[in-house]
Amino acid sequence: MKFEVTILGNSSATPIFHRNPTSQILNINERLLMIDCGEGTQQQMLRYGIKYHKIDHIFISHLHGDHFFGLIGLISSMHLNGRVKPLCLFAPKELQEILDLQFKHSGTIIKFPIEFYATQVKNSEMILETNDFTVETIILNHRIPCTGFIFKQKIKLRKIIKEKTNQLEIPAAYYPLLKQGIDFTDTSGNIHKAADLTAEPDIPRSYAYCSDTVADGTYLHHLQDVNTLYHESTFMYDMVERAKETFHTTALEAGEIAKTTNVEKLLIGHFSARYRDLTPLLLEARSVFAESYLANEGETFMI
Ligand SMILES: [Zn+2]
Ligand SMILES: [Zn+2]
Question: 141 alpha carbon to ligand 2 midpoint, in Å?
Answer without folding.
Answer: 10
